[in-house]
Write a structure and sequence with these properties.
TIM Barrel, 3-stranded antiparallel β-sheet
């Protein structure tokens, strides 16, 4: 058994299953490059059969990434596996991850299959995947609630069929650490050919135990952990990459493995990038990447840290990228400094026109706030990408009036296709009035599910980053907007969400690929 812990990142696949967290192809490539820079072993880029967009995104990541293995998910169906194989054709190192459910409730209620049929389908799928790559991962979906004897039968058979990684998912976040670790131990002990594969785990966070379950599995012989940046994922999320990695790195005295190949100083950059692209802010008290993760307010703590950092800090903030490469730009910064810093953040421009547009946005922002940090740049690039992708509806002008004792009102002008339309409305506040004015023009029929405001950096001149979640006909999208004026940021976010939800799309939500 190797002492190297393989980090399998599924932010681009399972993370995208968070309602409203869909990413464009270019955004997936940006995140994949950041993960590659961190030296993540495997990047699960998507579920190619889900839609044309997902196929193209996996294909683009496979072309862009050179050092990490690129993985595509497929059900245990020939059509899925063939689609994954086609999407991964240009990858330097490719993996097909195929799955089928093995728990009694899933087999009976979802698959409508008998156990022997499931076993046969699993073996057939692995053999089919081997026609495209010798790196094949198999997952028995809902393994955490599967019967042990049947699970052993299936896993032994797929190893014989050619699987090289066995992933044991706690699909519904039902397991607890002692139980889940014991399951991994029993599988390794009872399956005769278990020494021929790497055991992996994929834990969901429904009970807040995803990281604990993953680490318990590692203690019992698992040598791959499937996780996501910021713990992103559907429902309560997945095991958090940064927490798993730093737990193993910090407690080398406990864990019988290492992640020395990972560049943990890239964690913060990846965290900010994912947060900026998805519009999912990181809570301040989030371990490792939260704003308060290395902050000390208690006088006793501050005194101790000043005397000796180790009194209250078990790891260095620099080790996860908190203070590394922090170049502050401003209104006097030139084009070269701007371009160089964005390149260091793994942002490349396809054309000179794109660079000029981004630089103009940077200068506009620099006129509004004195110092521009990495977080501001990430938000700026994300906003530029959003506008480039969605140009049906744009904000032209917004005027709001909010006065003590008076009803707030907003006057707005939007560019709709090639023309301009204006409207006015009152509301409970300036944001509410702005949204109502937009709706007077668009009449979308959408339901507002979430309105969230997050400061990108500190200070009263900080940009406000707003996330708006809209629902229409069962479809849910997130919209993002950033500006030093929070009302303008809110309008931008609402318009961004409308651009997504009002445009016709053949994109199928990848939720059908849940392991």
């Amino acid at each position: 058994m190797s002492d190297r812990l393989i980090i399998f990142d599924t932010t681009l696949r399972d993370g995208e299953q968070s309602p409203g967290a869909s990413m464009t192809k270019d955004e997936k490539v940006r995140i994949a490059r950041a993960l590659e820079k961190m030296h993540v072993d495997v990047i699960e880029a998507g579920f190619p059969i889900a839609s044309v967009g997902d196929f193209e995104a996996v294909q683009a990541v496979a072309k862009a990434v050179k050092d990490s293995t690129v993985c595509g998910l497929s059900r245990a169906l020939d059509t899925d596996i063939e689609r994954a194989g086609e999407a991964l054709k240009s990858a330097n190192s490719a993996r097909i991850h195929t799955f089928i459910a093995t728990s009694p409730i899933h087999m009976k209620m979802k698959l409508r299959m008998e156990p022997d049929q499931v076993l046969e389908q699993a073996v057939k799928a692995v053999k089919k995947a081997r026609q495209f790559t010798d790196n094949v991962e198999f997952s028995p979906e809902d393994a955490g609630r599967s019967e042990l004897d049947f699970l052993c039968r299936v896993l032994e058979a797929v190893i014989d069929a050619g699987a090289t990684t066995l992933n044991i998912p706690d699909t519904v976040g039902y397991n607890v650490p002692e139980q889940f670790g014991s399951l991994i131990y029993k599988l390794r002990e009872r399956i005769p050919n278990s020494d021929k594969v790497v055991f992996s785990v994929h834990c969901h966070n429904d009970l807040g135990l995803a990281v604990a379950n993953s680490l318990s599995a590692v203690m019992n012989g698992a040598r791959q952990v499937e996780c996501t940046i910021n713990g992103l994922g559907e429902r309560a999320g997945n095991a958090s990459l940064e927490e798993v990695v730093m737990a193993v790195k910090t407690r080398k005295d406990v864990f019988p493995c290492n992640i020395d190949h990972l560049d943990t100083t890239q964690i913060m950059n990846s965290s900010r990038l994912v947060s900026s692209i998805t519009g999912f802010p990181v809570q301040p008290n989030k371990a490792i990447v939260g704003a308060n993760a290395f902050a000390h307010e208690s006088g006793i703590h501050q005194d101790g840290v000043l005397k000796s950092r180790e009194t209250y800090e078990i790891m260095r903030a620099e080790d996860v990228g908190w203070s590394a490469n922090r170049m502050v730009l401003g209104k006097h910064s030139g084009r070269n400094a701007f371009k160089t810093r964005l390149r260091e953040l793994d942002v490349e421009f396809a054309s000179e026109a794109e660079l000029n547009d981004a630089f103009a946005r940077f200068k506009d922002l620099a006129d509004k706030k004195h110092e521009i940090f990495d977080e501001d740049l990430q938000a700026l690039v994300t906003e530029a990408n959003l506008e480039a992708a969605n140009d049906w509806l744009k904000l032209v002008r917004l005027k709001v009036c909010s006065e003590t004792g008076e009803t707030p009102n907003a006057s707005i002008t939007l560019r709709v296709d090639d023309g301009e339309l204006s409207a006015e409305s009152e509301g409970g506040g300036p944001v509410d009035a702005s949204f109502k004015a937009i709706e007077q023009i668009i009449k979308s029929g959408c339901s507002l599910q979430l309105y969230s405001v997050n400061n990108i950096t500190s200070g009263t001149d900080s940009q406000g980053e707003v996330t708006v979640r809209l629902e229409k006909g069962g479809r849910i999208v997130n919209g993002q907007g950033a500006d030093t004026d929070i009302v303008i940021a809110s309008a931008k976010a609402y318009i961004n969400a409308l651009n997504k939800i009002m445009e016709p799309s053949d994109r199928a939500h990848p939720q059908t690929g849940d392991v």
